[in-house]
UniProtKB/TrEMBL annotation:
This is AAA family ATPase. It comes from the Bacteria. InterPro entries: P-loop_NTPase (IPR027417). It holds the Pfam family AAA_24. The lineage of its organism: Bacteria, Pseudomonadati, Bacteroidota, Flavobacteriia, Flavobacteriales.
């Protein structure tokens, strides 16, 4: 046992992407993977449980696919991840992990005896699956279906179910295992419901793009092995004007925006209106009378 000073290390991101059917989870995952792999789709793999839906977006690039068949056991997912790791995949998309939870629920219901104590037989199987995801030496994007969630409220002495939003088809609290969790709505807009990176929490809804993956990759690579000097300037990545523009839209504070402005003086003239617009947006972000203009960009 040793006491040591904390240090930021390079990381492999573990992302949860949850949404209802038709929200674009697979497509959004591929866009994230494009950025996380620096556009090298040969290093991207999809573990597909959605009856071949992974092949619907083959026009995006030459990514790799492993198709799983029922029953979707935890061990089958683990074996597929092992194959991807041995093949040198840098980004692995699990589309989706809800099927694994469905299998565990069916298996639990088939067990004889006490239902409560039978969960002790399920827990090790789920732990095997989650440990593999968390320990995998690749970026992981796991999609999850959502369903309507209810709570029981007492009214006039009776318990009445009331809708309280959407809930992922997974065990309660699974989102705590991920570094970043995106909630995708039917119009393909996303918000972050959990964010250890600090890149997206509290940010207005937006549409996932390749640049979203690049921003996450930059965060992952800002570990100790990348630091030459212990200053902000030592971790600045040289970006194009378009990429600086995209970073402007993702700044979460005026201080962060100012750092970006100081880091790229060559774009002060061309991007000054965008810096000022983002500053105004951040100053009024909590004003309920404002609406966001996500999806609009000066670069196509």
């Amino acid at each position: 046992m040793q006491l040591r000073q904390s240090e930021r290390k390079q990381a492999k991101i573990k992302i949860g992407l949850q949404g209802c059917a038709g929200s674009g989870k697979t497509y959004s995952s591929l866009l994230l993977a494009t950025g996380l792999s620096n556009g090298n789709f040969t290093k991207v793999a999809i573990i597909d449980t959605e009856n071949g839906s992974a092949d619907l977006y083959a026009h995006l690039g030459d990514y790799n696919v492993i198709s799983l068949k029922p029953p979707f056991t935890p061990q089958q997912y683990v074996d597929a991840i092992n194959i991807c790791e041995k093949a040198g995949m840098e980004v692995i998309i699990l589309d989706s992990i809800s099927h694994c939870w469905d299998y565990l629920l069916d298996y639990h219901s088939s067990l004889a005896g006490n239902s409560f104590t039978n969960w002790a037989k399920i827990k090790p199987l789920e732990k095997l699956f989650m440990d593999k995801i968390l320990q995998c030496n690749a970026h992981i994007i796991a999609t999850m279906r959502t369903k309507q969630d209810y709570v029981l409220n007492q009214k006039d002495g009776k318990f009445i179910p009331e809708k309280v939003g959407l809930k992922s088809v997974q065990r309660d609290g699974l989102d705590y295992e991920f570094t970043l969790v995106f909630d995708v709505d039917i119009k393909h807009f996303v918000v972050s419901s959990k964010d250890r990176t600090g890149l997206f929490m509290g940010k207005p809804e937006f549409i996932i793009s390749e640049n979203t993956g690049k921003v996450i990759l930059n965060w992952c690579n800002q570990g100790k092995t990348n630091q030459i000097q212990n200053t902000i300037q030592s971790t600045v990545i040289i970006l194009s004007e378009k990429e600086v523009y995209e970073h402007i839209q993702m700044c979460n504070s005026i201080a962060e925006l100012l750092d970006l402005y100081k880091s790229y003086p060559q774009f002060h003239n061309s991007l000054k209106p965008d810096f000022e617009a983002r500053k105004t947006n951040l100053m009024n972000i909590n004003n309920p009378n404002n609406f966001n203009k996500n999806g609009h960009t000066k670069f196509q």
